[in-house]
């Protein structure tokens, strides 16, 4: 995330809400669940703090090349996920940092924009250096001798 002047934004303690939109590539493969493997897509938000572990939340979305999502009623359902982490060590523990992810539906077709929101609540007193949002495709197949897993970010 960047400030209006193009510099990297630093999020000081407080609550921040952002809306994002990620276009799906026109020839993106459909989500698939099968006996020998799957293709899954996840939206992921990651926050980075100085000298601390990253904190991430993700939610799965369904992508189909079929343009009629009405055949899958679950595609119209919203999804949200929240993760909270306390900073510091007891008894000097600061307030938590919360990262929430909200999306109005979970089914999409190629070329469509994924529109979603991210809320960051920082009550820790520690600044956040970076927030990273991405769409990830996970392909996993089972071979009789090994597990094949490939992840690609868009």
Structure notes:
The protein is mainly beta. The chain has strands at residues 14-23, 32-34, 37-48, 55-63, 79-86, 96-103, 107-108, 113-122, 130-142, 147-153. Strands 2, 3, 4, 7, 9 and 10 form a six-stranded mixed β-sheet that branches. A four-stranded antiparallel β-sheet has the order 1-8-6-5, with no helix packed on it. The radius of gyration is 18 Å and the shape is globular.
Low-confidence stretches: none
Strand content: over 45%
Q: Please give the count of helices.
A: 0
The biggest beta sheet, please? Answer: 6 strands, mixed
Query: Helix coverage percent of residues?
Result: under 10%
Estimate the global geometry from the Cα principal axes: globular
Spell out the helices and strands N to C.
Answer: EEEEEEEEEE
Comma- or semicolon-separated keywords:
154 residues; single chain; mainly beta; 4-stranded antiparallel beta sheet
């Amino acid at each position: 995330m960047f400030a209006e002047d193009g510099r990297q934004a630093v999020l000081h303690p407080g609550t921040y809400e952002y809306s994002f939109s990620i276009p799906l590539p026109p020839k993106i493969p459909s989500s698939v669940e099968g006996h020998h493997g799957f293709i899954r897509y996840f939206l992921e938000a990651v926050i980075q703090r100085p000298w601390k572990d990253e904190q991430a939340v993700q939610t799965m979305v369904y992508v189909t090349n079929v343009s009629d999502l009405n055949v899958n009623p679950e595609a119209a359902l919203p999804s949200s996920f929240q993760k909270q982490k306390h900073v510091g060590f007891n008894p000097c523990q600061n307030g938590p940092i919360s990262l929430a992810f909200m999306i109005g539906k979970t089914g999409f077709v190629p070329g469509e924009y994924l529109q979603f929101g991210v809320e960051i609540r920082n009550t820790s007193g520690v600044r956040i250096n970076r927030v990273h949002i991405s769409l990830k495709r996970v392909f996993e197949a089972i071979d009789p001798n090994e597990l094949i897993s490939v992840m690609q970010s868009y």
